[in-house]
Design a protein that fits this description.
Layout (H helix, E strand, L loop, with lengths): L7 E5 L4 H12 L5 E4 L4 H11 L6 E4 L2 E4 L3 H8 L3
Parallel strand pairs: 1-2
Antiparallel strand pairs: 1-3, 3-4
Length: about 80
């Protein structure tokens, strides 16, 4: 499995500008991702809170790594995007 094929999951809300930005970034770079709306899904919100200890979004899982916020540099490195 190449880095671009790592499972990518985004915990987000519809009103979060950074969530919108990260999704546009993934679409531009042809990264497949699963989006979980924590504003509507309380189980997912609890899951995200347990994994990260916080309630802020976006939170992105890339394989076994977790990125809090839209850390473009870290995300690019994890997915080997130039």
């Amino acid at each position: 499995m190449t880095d671009k094929e790592k499972k990518v999951k985004i915990y987000s809300t519809p009103t979060c500008t950074y969530c919108v930005a990260i999704k546009k970034f993934f679409e531009k770079n042809e990264v497949d991702y699963e989006e979980v709306n924590v504003a509507e899904n309380q189980e997912a919100l609890q899951e995200m809170k347990e994994k990260t200890g916080q309630l802020g979004v976006p939170v992105t899982e890339i394989g076994d790594d977790i990125v809090i916020g839209f850390d473009k540099k870290k995300i690019s490195k994890l997915l080997e995007i130039n």
